[in-house]
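Hey,
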Amino acid sequence: MDFDLDDQQRELRDTARRFLEREAPVSYARAMMDDERGYRDDIWKRMAEMGWMALPFPEEHDGLGMGFVPLALLLAEMGRVVLPGPYFSSVALGGLAIAEAGSDEQRARLLPRIAGGAAITTVGIEGRVDVRNDRLFGELRFVPDGHVADVVIVVARTDDGEEGLFLAEPSERRTVLTMDQTRKVADLVFEASPAERLGAATREDVQRLSDRAAVALAAEMLGLCERALELSVDYAKERVQFGRPIGSFQAIKHRAADMFVDVESLRNAVYYAAWALERDHPDASMVASMAKAYAGDAARRVTSSGIQIHGGIGFTWEHDMHLYFKRAKADEVAFGDATFHRERIARLLRNRLRT
């Protein structure tokens, strides 16, 4: 398997890096931590003008039709600056759910608005929501950008016990304070909220949504790890102790080498999982869990090591390392942690051996 990027993918990656470092650096993430919405309209509009919201959607609905691999590359670049705002929830979650499971009418109605940045969508999966007489009852926890989403997609249980996807307006939205304030989440309450079924979505569509979310977060964690490694190596070259740069000490070299192995291994896992999802490969669901399981462990190790290499300054609010550690920790547990996904891989392999 050749994991090298083509010219178009490299151009997307490099353009995104230049834009984000110039227009939305880590200082932007810091500023948005205390912002009620968590993002600025001018940055969101410029991202839309660059075609980022339209990236994975079909051309007939004002998309660019570029697939999941370019989306993963873009999410990795966003991870490098701990980008705040609803891109992950609106494009990788809600937008792709509509693109793949929505009816023709729902795609035509919603996707052009999402692709143009005029509408924000999200998906709620944590919690319990039931459907009775075309109305939703229940509560969802920790919905990414649920406080600002114009379109909310709910994973709900029908009368026959099956899961499906529904469009609904929450009765109440409550912003939740979490460790990572660079990504806002909210609890959503549904009290007899009118529900619109998303196409003919089934349990399989819910799983595909979860697989995409897992790989999208793994891609973001790849970017977090890349930048944490770069910051750590640069600091180890500059910080002098006992008359020598600390990077010359064996303990620092070993820790940095382990970080590098984690980053490169995670890159391969993310690229392959994104490729498999893009091509609807038979192993796509399994490799999505493999990527998410490895990403959770690797991101925790890399960002923790980054703090250790920075020593005392790494624990301070003024340094950026804690932002990478907190986003990595939040991504680690979202849509299933490493233990969840390893158990899922075991079940998939067991079922395969039985057939």
